[in-house]
Every structure is written in structure tokens, then in C-alpha cells.
Specification:
- The chain is globular, with a radius of gyration of 18 Å.
- Helix 3 packs parallel to helix 4 and helix 4 runs parallel beside helix 5.
- It is 46% helix and 13% strand.
- The chain is an alpha/beta fold and 253 residues long.
- The chain has a single domain, classed as NAD(P)-binding Rossmann-like Domain (Rossmann fold), CATH 3.40.50.720.
- It starts with a strand and ends with a helix.
């Protein structure tokens, strides 16, 4: 079960799980033609158009899924939005909007799925957080706070549900080329900042959704059977340290 499955990281996760033979249940606020095309031929897969802030809709989707397939093995919470600004200028409504989707949406999605996982005494929850939940970002405020909250929430759920066989982890991507990325950086004002951010990724490029999906597959698979409560960083070295140009002097470029 993947929230935010209509585009970006969520879509990439849905595609990867389908490639690995999973039955994929997608959820997104928008009708997702891309997702339907990607899942073409997989007749068992389902898609629910819903808002992750709507707990009743989430409950209904989970109920239908369990009735049809008997269990839910994996939940990926990839639904998310951007937003921010310096605190003294940030409107309360904007703070609430971002927290509602990114943090509350993660909470509600997990809340809806956990009873089924508890009954079967097995499951893996993978929450898509961000490196901005680990380090600050100029003007990040509400976005950073929401993703930091996601990381803390996953650690707490790992503690609470581990003895029931449920693993809970988060992934912290760097800047990934998704529709959300393009909505922020595809203009003349933001382009110079995008270039600077790109250079701070040690590979000199932004990430691809498929690279995050690979980590999400690992955390859902038996290969990570002893991994819970972690925040897996997938950021091309962005948080490894600052680059100041010494690699050229050392002949490493």
C-alpha cells in the first residue's frame, strides 16, 4: 500500500514493488493516469483517490484491501507537499497545511493500517521523510518540522510495535527530481539555488525517484528483517559534509 502513488517517489515505489511481483494498492489525492499506466496488466492492483488527511477514507480503503487480499504487508507513506518561509512571516494556515499532509497524513495512514498488521503480527511501514528532517534549510520552517516529526514518529512506532513483528523505518531523501522539486525550482528566481544545492550532492546531481524506491524495496523486504527504527539517508552525500572545492586540488574530479 503506497500513499502519494500518483507521481514522484510514490509512483516509483509502486512501480518497483510491482516489478518485484507485489500486489500494489495505490492512493493519491489526484486521479493518477501515470500510476494506472505503470500498473497496466496487473489486474489485482487497486487505486484509491483520497486525501491522506481523511481518516474515514483511509479506513475504507484498508477495509476493502483486507477483504480482498486478506492482509497488508507493507505501507509506504509517500504523500507529501512542500511549503515554508521564515517563521515571523509564515501564516498559521500555511503551517497547518504542511503539517496536516506531511505529518498527520503519515500518522493517519499508519493508524489505519496498523490493526491489520497487528492481527497478522507482521508488517513493514516505510515513511518518506527528508534530509530536511535531519538538517536545517533556509526558510524551511514548517516543511522541516513536519519531516523531523515523521522521523521521530517512525522511531516511536518501531518501539511500540516491534514485539508484534512490525518494522517501522523512514527514508530521508536528498533533492530528488520529482514534480514537487520542479514546482519549487523551475523558475528564474530559484534556479541559482537549485544549482548550489546540486553541487552539495557529492555526485554533482540530484537523485532519481527510482533510487529512493530501491531503498523502499529494501526496507520492505526480508533483506532488512533486522532493521527497524532507522532513518535511512538517500541523499548522494548531501549530509556527509560541506564541499568547498578541495577535490579539484586533490585531483579527484
Amino acid at each position: 500500500m503506497v500513499t502519494g502513488a500518483g507521481s514522484g517517489i510514490g509512483l516509483a515505489c509502486a512501480e518497483r514493488y510491482a516489478q518485484e511481483g507485489a500486489i500494489v494498492i495505490g492512493m493519491d489525492l489526484n486521479e493518477a493516469e501515470d500510476w494506472k499506466g505503470s500498473m497496466q496488466g496487473a489486474q489485482d492492483d487497486l487505486f484509491f483517490q483520497l486525501n491522506v488527511c481523511d481518516y474515514e477514507a483511509l479506513e475504507a480503503a484498508v477495509k476493502e484491501t483486507v477483504e480482498r487480499f486478506k492482509r497488508i504487508d507493507v505501507l509506504v507513506t509517500a504523500a507529501g507537499i512542500g511549503g515554508g518561509g521564515p517563521v515571523h512571516l509564515l501564516e498559521e494556515a500555511e503551517w497547518d497545511r504542511v503539517q496536516s499532509v506531511n505529518l498527520k497524513g503519515t500518522f493517519l495512514s499508519a493508524k489505519a493500517v496498523l490493526p491489520s498488521m497487528m492481527e497478522q503480527r507482521a508488517g513493514s511501514i516505510v515513511a518518506i521523510a527528508s534530509i530536511e528532517g535531519i538538517v536545517g534549510a533556509e526558510g524551511g520552517s514548517t516543511y522541516n518540522a513536519s519531516k523531523g516529526g515523521v522521523i521521530s514518529l517512525t522511531k516511536n512506532m518501531a518501539l511500540d510495535y516491534g514485539r508484534l513483528g512490525i518494522r517501522v523505518n523512514s527514508i530521508c531523501p536528498g533533492l530528488i527530481e520529482t514534480p514537487l522539486y520542479h514546482s519549487i525550482f523551475d523558475n528564474e528566481i530559484m534556479k541559482p539555488f537549485a544549482d548550489r544545492y546540486r553541487e552539495q550532492h557529492k555526485f554533482g546531481r540530484f537523485g532519481k525517484p527510482e533510487e529512493v524506491a530501491g531503498a523502499a524495496y529494501f526496507l520492505a523486504s526480508e533483506d532488512s528483517s533486522f532493521v527497524t527504527g532507522t532513518a535511512l539517508v538517500v541523499d548522494g552525500g548531501f549530509t556527509a559534509g560541506h564541499s568547498v572545492g578541495m577535490t579539484a586540488l586533490l585531483g579527484l574530479e
